[in-house]
Amino acid sequence: MAGKILIADQIATxxxxxxxxxxxxxxxxxxxxxxxxxLNLAIRERPELILIDxxxxxxxxxxxxxxxxxxxxxxxxxxxxxxxxxxxxxxLAALRAGADVCLPKPYDEVLLLxxxxxxxxxxxxxxxxxxxxxxxxDLGFAEGPATFAAPARIxxxxxxxxxxxxxxxxxxxxxxxxYLTILERxxxxxxxxxxxxxxxALILAADLSRRDxxxxxMAELRARAGSKAAVICIAAEAEARETAVMALDLxxxxxxxxxxxxxxxxxxxxxxxxxxxxxxxxxxxxRKNLTEGLRLATIDPLTGLYNRRYAMPQLxxxxxxxxxxxxxxxxxxxxxxRFKDINDTYGHAVGDSVLTEVAHRLSTVLDGNDLLARIxxxxxxxxxxxxxxxxxxxxxDLLCRVINERPFHRANGPDLNVTISIGLxxxxxxxxxxxxxxxxxxxxxxxxxxxxxxxxxxxxxxxxA
Length: 465
Prior knowledge:
- The chain is an alpha/beta fold.
- The two termini are 59 Å apart.
- The chain contains 15 helices and 15 strands.
- Strand 12 (371-374) and strand 13 (379-385) form a beta hairpin.
- It has three domains: 1-107, Rossmann fold (3-Layer(aba) Sandwich); 143-294, Response regulator (Rossmann fold); 308-464, Alpha-Beta Plaits (2-Layer Sandwich), CATH 3.30.70.
- The longest helix is centred in the middle third of the chain and has 36 residues, at 263-298.
- It has a five-stranded parallel beta sheet, with helices on both faces. A five-stranded parallel beta sheet has the order 7-6-8-9-10, with helices on both faces.
- It catalyses: 2 GTP = 3',3'-c-di-GMP + 2 diphosphate.
């Protein structure tokens, strides 16, 4: 089945007819004859979408929509509100109550199914994002703070600047805290190439200089980094059913009336835009939380360097690149000398500050292509891709000097002299597996310790075969 749909309508004939149409499209349908029954079924059956008629025997359709959208158990379920076409006040009240879509009766079956597909895609995206966030919370990564609802940036693209100006003037009355900007087609494509969207929402006329040109423009915008996450609405004439269906199936967030100047129409559009923009802010925050969670999962919290979880796959990629290209690379294991004595003598807070300063000094020597990670208590890993042996040895010697040439400052007490021992491995064809690299680097580092510390020991590649 394509999904479970709950229908709430007091008239049995309406319920049966609508069920037959939806069942023909392979939806699983649940029926409710009144508002309370619909509320109970929504909690028990957890449908993917709810269709409610404006008239219920025990409560109004607006009240039912309000209850559904304020109950945490059902608030995420999309709601389609069916109303009489002349009942503008009821339609606006339903939108204020949280209804996702309002459709006049008698509804167009093809357009209704397109709306269903669009809302179910949106619900699926939202559910996937919530699942990812839940997984990260379970792993111990806290959510970031809720973002401040800054004024939205809304771009208007109409066939003429006169029509776009009329849209802007009408919408500004109901969206006073937002920025409305008139755009040409070329301007929209230009800002869409930026890494981050310059606009939170874009309203495109379905027909620009040519028929359905707005749909083609929307497809372009959805494929570009700077606009793929923006709310995109298509403004179409009421009789252009095929255009509306195509727009929804191509990924439009909504289809709006082409004439936005009537007061009730403009308020309708403003309510819908606010809902879409609120969802976009939630998704933006979710993406930000996920990005931060992924970053934290790969970063050592004390030093800010990469951790072992990140370093090992990266080292594998560096070795694989060397295998494919025949280029040299080098791997180093670095261990602080007598670090336990520092912790035992001065305390772990001083030890932590030493580790942090060591990480900082190491990072100043390396460039962006090199891998630097803290993989143990006082142990660091460095990988230098595309690095000839003589350059690797020079780099290792420089790293030793960077640590030992200047004492480590203490706020309360004498400065500390800190040194490191380095095991250097040159990754030739016989030392390209990660296990062999680590074994060789660890052996070389232990030789550095044994030979007096504060030095570099190069692993003899021939003996590692």
